[in-house]
Structure formats: C-alpha cells, structure tokens
Amino acid sequence: MFTQHTVRSFDKELNRLSKEIAEMGTYAAHIVERSILAIMRDDQKLAKQVISDDIFLDVAERKIDEEAILIIARRQPMAVDLREIIGAIRISVDLERVGDMGKNIAKRTAVLSDVRQTAAFYHGLEDFAALALKQLNEVLDAYACRSLERIDAVREHDDEIDSMYTSLFRDLLTYMLEDPRNITVCTHLLFCAKNIERIGDHATNIAKTVHYVITGTYPALERPKDDQTYRLEIGKSRRIL
Amino acid sequence: MFTQHTVRSFDKELNRLSKEIAEMGTYAAHIVERSILAIMRDDQKLAKQVISDDIFLDVAERKIDEEAILIIARRQPMAVDLREIIGAIRISVDLERVGDMGKNIAKRTAVLSDVRQTAAFYHGLEDFAALALKQLNEVLDAYACRSLERIDAVREHDDEIDSMYTSLFRDLLTYMLEDPRNITVCTHLLFCAKNIERIGDHATNIAKTVHYVITGTYPALERPKDDQTYRLEIGKSRRIL
C-alpha cells in the first residue's frame, strides 16, 4: 500500500510538472500573439502590458526548475521519469525565451508608432508570426500526448519557416532600398522577424527535447540550416551597390 | 574503504563535468573570436571553418547532458551535488548557443565580402565582440573557482554591453541613412551586433546559474533591461522621416 501510495503521489508530481509546462506554453504563445497585435494595431497600452506580463514566464521557469530539482532529490527517479524531469527543465528554458521574443517585439511598438507606415509593411510579419506560433502549438500538443510521430511531423515544417523568413527579409530590405525613409521602420521590423524566426528555433529545440523524453536519445544532429538571408543582397541591392 | 572509493569516483565524475564545461567555454569563445576575425579580414576560408567547427559544441552539449543524467541516475546526488549537475546541463545549453552566435556571424562573411566597406564600418563590431567575450571569460573564470563575489562583479558589466550595443546600433543606422548603398552591409552588421549582444545575455544566464549552483537560489529577478535601441530612431532619421 505504502509503495503504491508513494508511486501515485510521484505520478501526481510528474503530471503537475507536465501541466505547468503546458500552461507556460499557452502563456508564452499568448505573449507573442499580443505583441504582434500591439504592433499591427499600434496599441501602446497593450505593448506595455505584454512587456510587464513577461515576468510571469520568468517566475514559472524558476518554479518548474525548483520543483523539478525537489522531485529529483526526493524521488531519485530513474530512466524515463528522470528524462521527464530533465525534459521539463529544458522546455521551460525555451518557453521563457519565447516569451522574451514577444517582449522584444512589444518593445518595438513605441518606435514603430513614430514611423507608422501602410498596413502592407506589417502583414508579412503577422503571417510569419502565425506560422511560428502554429509550429509552437503543434510541438506543445505533441509533448502533451508524448507522440513521436507528431514530433517528427512538426520538425518537417522547419523549412516553411526558413523560406518565409527569407522572403520577409527580402521584402523589408527592398523597402529600405526603395526609399531611405523606410530604413528605421524596416530595421525594427527586421529585428521583429528575427525574433519570430527564433520562436521557430525554440519550437525545434522543444521538439528535440520531447524526442529525448520519449526515446532516451536526441535526434541525429541535423544538416546545417539553410538560411538564405545570410546570402541576401537581392537583385535590387546588387544593382545599386 | 568502499564508500570512500565511491565518493572519490563521484567527485571525479563531477570534476570531469566541470572540466568539460570549461573546455566547452574556451571553445565557444574561440568560435566567436574567429568569426569576428573572418569578418574583419574578409577571410572566407576561416568563415567556412568556423561554420563547420560549431558542430563540436553541439556534440559537447549532448555529451555533457548524457553524462549528467547518467551521474544523477547512478549516484542519486543531493543538494549541492545535484545543483552542480543541473548547473552543468544549463551552462552547456548557453555555451552551445554562444557557438551558434559565432556561426551566425561567420555565415555573414560571404555576403559582407560582396559589399566590402572601409575598415571604419567593422571596428565597432570588433570592440563590441571583445567586450562580450571579456564578460563570457570572466563568468567562466568565476564558475571555475565557484566565486560568488566574482559572479556579482561580472553582472555589473551588463550596462557596459547595453550602452556599447546602443552606440553601435546608432552608428550603423546613421551609415544607412547617409547613403542607401550602405544598407545591405549595415543590415548584416546590425545582425552581427545583435548576435554579440546575445553572447552577453548568455554570459548573464551562466552567471545566474553559477549563483544558483553556489547558493541554491537564483538572484532576484532583475530590473527590466534598459535596451535603448528599442527607442532608436536617432536624430538624423527623425529629420528625414
């Protein structure tokens, strides 16, 4: 009886950790969504709210960390249980950084407000954020049901993120080259785009961690990522330069 | 005798983990130094070498991770020993990302070669990288001697990184506004600067982890970081826009 009871409360602890990760993931995605909304709508109040709300993710990360370490010390778990706990620590780090990306985007709302441009400048960013958040949500779903198949499926979308980022980068660089008055706004939008690309990277990191939690091994070290923006000068700039 | 022997080999395992972190730190700093050298000297061969060498950090991170988990499973450590091991896992994540920053910088060498500018464009980046690497090395030294005083001292330098980044950002934006032919080169240099700023962030993360390893608590959640670049439009662009 005692052992069974002990096992049961251990399971409860692990389930709580999982649930906290899920909540943290939902909150991180929410921070990013609202940061994009703040930029789209030029909503300074919302931007400020997002910037201050990010602290909840810092607190959640520490809480998960402390709980995880307490569980290890108290339960001395082996194999898959230990992987669950180490996995929770790693995923919480990535989710906290996703929140930071949202906060960084929200911080640019103020300066973007001063140099407001037509809606066309921002749509690419909105679509790109939607794609990155879709990937994050898929990876969190795959974590929730510990599904290896779904994790592998998510990782196949990395290329979509890469190509959308390249296209957005090219568009923004083109706007800058067309008219120097676009430089400030586009520079800040480029950094927003980079932040969103990094959300995709964090989703990929989480996918790798989930793979490890399930199987005990990390996926093979991947092909070098083909980020075309490192070669981007685009036709137009080549002509000008 | 047996117990003593067991303890001794446990200590050996922990020391090896520490040593591997130190080596990983040295290698990560080396990757970044060489990436900056590649940009300064327009050295494509060196850039390619840096990009391919980054894999060693991915491998090192996984090795440390696997060893750490094996030690936890085998030794079931408590308190400070457990913190040492969790600390090693966290620090290796940050060091792997520092290497990624170096790789990202190296990747821009090719496009920067096509739009080569006078040396003045690159000096700010070189000085900024030197400052970030100084901070990283200090934090690694503080980790090596588990010194709380030195860790707190390192964290006070965060402001220097912030202000140097703001100044570099302003200079690059000014070059762009002065002459549209500078846009491509400055956009890529801005991303390099952002990568270096993130090396500073990783050094700060490591400092927090070392604080945790030594004391069992994380430092208080800090003041919101005062990154002036989020407000940067600079005088010149205000006039133009």
Q: What is the 3D shape of chain A? A: elongated
Provide mean pLDDT of chain A, rounded: 87
Give the strand tally of chain A.
0
- Helical amount among residues of chain A, as a percent range? over 70%
- H/E element string of chain A? HHHHHHHHHH
Derived structural class of chain A: mainly alpha
Task: Work out the helix count of chain A.
Answer: 10
Strand content of chain A: under 5%
| N- to C-terminal distance of chain A | 78 Å
Q: What is the subunit arrangement here? A: homodimer
Low-confidence stretches of chain A: 234-241
The Rg value of chain A, from CA coordinates, equals: 20 Å
Query: Which chains have the largest interface?
Result: A-B, 48 and 48 residues
Largest sheet of chain A: none
Task: Describe, in plain words, how this protein is organized in 3D.
2 copies of one chain form a homodimer. Chain A has 10 helices and no strands. The first copy, chain A, has 241 residues and is mainly alpha-helical. In chain A, helix 1 runs antiparallel to helix 3, helix 6 runs antiparallel to helix 7 and helix 7 runs antiparallel to helix 9. Chain A is elongated. In chain A, 43% of the residues are buried. The C terminus of chain A is likely disordered. At the A-B interface, helix 3, helix 4, helix 5, helix 8 and helix 9 of A face helix 3, helix 4, helix 5, helix 8 and helix 9 of B.
